[in-house]
Design goal:
Phosphorylase Kinase, domain 1; Aminoglycoside 3'-phosphotransferase, Chain: A, domain 2; 2 domains; 6-stranded antiparallel sheet; 3-stranded antiparallel sheet; 11 strands; globular; binds adenosine-5'-diphosphate; binds 2-acetamido-2-deoxy-1-O-phosphono-alpha-D-glucopyranose; binds magnesium ion
């Protein structure tokens, strides 16, 4: 699970593509993207002389235990988002390509789950912010996404990973992993554990506000990394939110906070030079501006009050998760080198410290935008 699976051959990909309602000859298949969970491929077909690309994904069913429910969520969410955009803009949401039997996924004989999306052309994702406007556009797209889903009809969405953003559970998992120390790595990470354990009180703060009725549950994305939103090549506008596996009931603060965690970091998530890891004030400014522009007037006073805290909490939570995975022997996130999860954990915990140190400046950014509402 932790290392990328081997790339299937062209013949294997042809067999995987066969059940889907796609015509034409398969020309090529390449690994695509830099996600930590699923296996993504771009397949190109010759359709009447024109090359047409599709995104194929093998869903990680060790992590997403109920793929049919997950795909039901995605079908509902994508249909609703498209229906709400002017003129039913098909680039505004992922478009599932169904199997010839009309199913949203295909299960292979060996138990893998595959799904296919139309390839969104003339747009791309970014693994790092090059300029603040990209962060603003990403935040605006995630804000709009949340607003579009505020009136999603029907039953509550399935929780594809229970307690996904329950930081109290994530904290408990780290404690347990440290006690079990199955990979014998605890001795290497005492400083990180001390840092993480010292912040236990933070873990339950948003959950307490939910329990007090001050923060509502909404339909949220829950994984608002910059590379989970497509920006238009020509205009730079955030046009489509992707990676919908974790769309489920959640808090708007999780989405906002994860934007700060990923886009607000001046370094990549796995940068090892601690000096490079800073919180970028211009990028956070752009995230607040974009998110508010997209989500509209939905935020409650308690949500406004906790925007910066949410940035810290999401960074802390992902830091706990990387550290837990390192202690457990790298069983969850894909890794590309020994110690990768430890590098990521150290990076995230350093960013927590940076956010704490910059709290005054960060709160001032929020206050300025709040004052303009
Ligand atoms: P993961 O869960 O592994 O992060 P994603 O769904 O985010 O997988 O897909 C990985 C990458 O593939 C994205 O960052 C994006 O660059 C690309 N991608 C995904 N879906 C599409 C699509 N429909 N059109 C074009 N590119 C896509
Ligand atoms: C994973 O799938 P991807 O790479 O967008 C993870 C997120 C983490 C992120 C850290 C289902 O996201 O929760 O924040 O890595 N997704 C899942 O980079 O666990
Ligand atoms: Mg992704």
């Amino acid at each position: 699970m932790s290392t990328p699976a081997n790339t299937p051959s062209l013949d294997e990909m042809r067999a995987i593509a066969a059940p889907f309602a796609i015509h034409g000859k398969l020309l090529s298949a390449e690994r695509y993207g830099s996600g930590h969970i699923n296996d993504t491929y771009a397949l190109c077909f010759d359709q009447a002389g024109a090359p047409v690309r599709y995104i194929f994904q093998r869903v990680n069913h060790n992590i997403f235990k109920n793929v049919p429910e997950l795909m039901e969520n995605i079908s509902r969410v994508t249909a609703h988002v498209v229906a709400k955009t002017a003129g039913g803009d098909s680039r505004a949401a992922l478009t599932l390509v169904l199997t010839r039997d009309g199913a949203p996924f295909y299960k292979t004989a060996c138990g893998n789950f595959w799904r296919v999306y139309l390839f969104i052309e003339k747009a791309r994702t970014y693994d790092a912010v090059e300029k603040p406007t990209q962060a603003r556009e990403a935040a605006r797209a995630f804000g709009l996404f949340q607003q579009a889903l505020a009136d999603l009809p029907g039953a509550r969405l399935h929780e594809t990973i229970p307690n996904f953003h329950n930081t109290v559970s994530r904290f408990a998992a780290l404690r347990k992993a440290a006690e079990a120390d199955v990979a014998g790595r605890k001795k290497e990470v005492q400083a990180e554990l001390d840092f993480a354990f010292a912040r236990e009180a933070d873990a339950g703060r948003l959950l307490a506000l939910v329990a007090a009725g001050k923060i509502p549950e909404r339909v949220t994305h829950n994984d608002t990394k910059l590379n989970n939103v497509m920006l238009d090549d020509a205009t730079g506008a955030g046009i489509c939110v992707i990676d919908l596996d974790t769309v489920m009931p959640g808090l708007s603060l999780y989405d906002f906070g994860d934007l700060v965690r990923f886009a607000g970091n001046t370094a990549a998530e796995d940068e090892i030079d601690q000096e490079k890891i800073q919180v970028s004030l211009p990028v956070v400014d752009a995230i607040v501006e974009g998110y508010i522009a997209g989500a509209g007037d939905i935020l409650t006073p308690a949500e406004w009050d906790n925007l910066i805290f949410a940035g810290k909490l999401m960074t802390y939570e992902v830091g706990l998760r990387f550290l837990t995975d390192y202690l457990q022997g790298d069983v969850y996130f894909k890794t590309k080198r020994p110690g990768h999860n430890l590098d990521r954990a150290r990076n995230q915990l350093r960013l927590v410290a940076r956010i704490e140190a910059a709290d005054k400046e960060l709160q001032a950014i929020v206050a300025r935008h709040r004052g303009q509402k």
